[in-house]
Write a structure and sequence with these properties.
3-stranded antiparallel beta sheet; Arc Repressor Mutant, subunit A; 7 strands; 2 domains; alpha+beta; two-stranded antiparallel sheet
Length: about 180
């Protein structure tokens, strides 16, 4: 198994691996199985190099592609680099107790999944709040709980209809999320 394949498997399992000097930090640790820990230990040198290469790529993307932008996040999503950046001329979000752009606080892989499905969901009559609201609590009639509040990294929307979004959770279980609460 290559280092990139191991990193992809870690992502699918909901794990985030990052460098801290010569250490590999893993979060959340509760998701790390003893079997996967053995794989990580057996491949540590290759993983250190792959993670270091990712850090170099992130720095290069920031310097070359977004020289004036504030780089928010670079992650690998479905095997490809996904970049979130804020243009240099865009003002910082106001700190007024409510996010100006709540999508920016949603995990990048969840945001990617919702962006892929948004057009179809809206065509089926789903209100955008029912898709993008990421607050599980509190929610109200004016601001209903959204798909973003129940999706986690590694979850996939399998299909949607007029009544439900059918979700395959990363642990293999299935969940139906209703269009109307």
């Amino acid at each position: 198994m290559t280092a990139e394949a191991i990193l992809l498997e870690a992502e699918k399992s909901g794990l985030c691996l990052r460098l801290d000097g010569e250490l590999i930090k893993i979060s959340p640790p509760r998701l790390l199985t003893p079997e996967f820990k053995q794989v990580l230990c057996a491949n540590k040198p290759a993983l250190l190099e792959a993670l270091s290469a990712r850090e170099r790529l992130t720095a290069e993307i920031k310097e070359v592609v977004f020289p004036e932008a504030k780089l928010v996040e670079v992650q690998q999503v479905n095997g490809a680099a996904a970049v979130a950046a804020m243009p240099a001329n865009e003002p910082e979000p106001a700190d007024n107790g409510r996010e100006e752009n709540p999508r920016s606080t949603i995990d990048l892989s969840v945001r990617y999944e919702l962006e892929n499905w948004e057009r179809q969901l809206v065509a089926l009559g789903w209100p955008t709040d029912r898709i993008w609201n990421h607050d599980f609590w509190p929610h109200s009639d004016n601001r209903p709980r959204g798909l973003a509040s129940v999706l986690q990294r590694g979850d996939r929307i399998q299909f949607a209809d007029n009544n439900f979004a059918h979700i395959l959770k990363r642990d293999g279980s299935r969940q139906r999320f209703p269009k109307d609460e």
